[in-house]
């Protein structure tokens, strides 16, 4: 890596005042590129550390990215007509006001239910969490597999892996928020929200 880097750097080769000292020119160039390479490595290491730190922070403690209500990384499971799908996402309520997710609608969805998956004596079961989903101020609510999710009930069309669906999320305070959710078998890689 160092060798490749040195070759790309504009290393001065000859023509300098130290030209006459034979091998000295090479030694100076080598020292300069080595120093630059070390500095670059240090910068990369620092950048890596910063990234790791933010990634390790518990989600609840990282500051919310904005003072608005927003939805991050919505996605839904594939499902057959007549079946149910599940919607996952992170809802960030950056406002100082409690909000509530009242409904999720799309032409193919008959109705929704808010569920919580619980481990009951080794068996994963889904429990209804109520008609609506409370969103306290200055918090993020994460809907993910094995935890809270929105069931999309009694679909009239298939939801096909690799496609996407437009959903209207109805919030008590914010009103309607339209999102496009990819249809996936597994959660998208967490490219942590900005
Ligand atoms: Cu469910």
Structure description:
- Helices cover 21% and strands 37% of the residues.
- The chain has 194 residues and is of the alpha+beta class.
- The longest helix is centred in the first third of the chain and has 33 residues, at 24-56.
- The two termini are 31 Å apart.
- Copper (II) ion is lined by residues 86, 115, 126, 149, 151.
Question: What topology does this entry show?
Answer:
Elements: H1 2-8, H2 24-56, E1 69-76, E2 85-93, E3 99-105, E4 111-120, E5 123-130, E6 133-135, E7 139-143, E8 148-153, E9 164-171, E10 175-182
This protein binds copper (II) ion.
Main pleated-sheet profile: 6 strands, antiparallel
| Overall residue-averaged pLDDT value | 79
Distance from first to last alpha carbon: 31 Å
Could you list the spans in which at least 5 consecutive residues all have pLDDT below 50? 1-25, 34-57
**CATH topology label of the largest domain:** Immunoglobulin-like
CATH class descriptor of the largest domain: Mainly Beta
Structural class: alpha+beta
The small molecules bound here are:
copper (II) ion
Number of beta strands: 10
The total count of helices amounts to 2
* Fraction of helical residues: 10-25%
Rg for CA atoms: 27 Å
What is the CATH architecture assignment of the largest domain? Answer: Sandwich
Shape: globular
CATH homologous superfamily caption of the largest domain: PCu(A)C copper chaperone
Indicate how many domains the architecture comprises: 2
What is the string of helix and strand elements?
HHEEEEEEEEEE
Strand content: 35-45%
């Amino acid at each position: 890596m160092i060798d490749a880097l040195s070759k790309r750097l504009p290393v001065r080769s000859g023509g300098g005042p130290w030209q006459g000292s034979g091998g000295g020119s090479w030694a100076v160039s080598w020292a300069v590129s080595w120093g630059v390479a070390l500095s670059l490595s240090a910068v990369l290491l620092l950048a890596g550390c910063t990234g790791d730190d933010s990634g390790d922070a518990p989600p609840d403690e990282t500051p919310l990215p904005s003072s608005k209500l927003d939805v991050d990384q919505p996605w839904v499971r594939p499902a057959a007509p007549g079946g149910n799908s599940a919607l996952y996402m992170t809802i960030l309520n950056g406002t100082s006001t409690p909000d509530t997710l009242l409904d999720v609608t799309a032409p193919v969805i008959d109705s929704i239910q808010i569920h919580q998956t619980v481990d009951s004596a080794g068996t994963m079961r889904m429990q209804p969490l109520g008609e609506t989903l409370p969103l306290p101020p200055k918090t993020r609510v994460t809907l993910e597999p094995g935890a809270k999710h929105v069931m999309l009930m009694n679909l009239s069309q298939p939801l096909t892996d690799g496609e996407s669906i437009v959903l209207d999320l109805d919030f008590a305070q914010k009103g309607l928020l339209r999102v496009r959710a990819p249809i996936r078998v597994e959660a998208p890689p967490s490219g942590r929200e900005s």
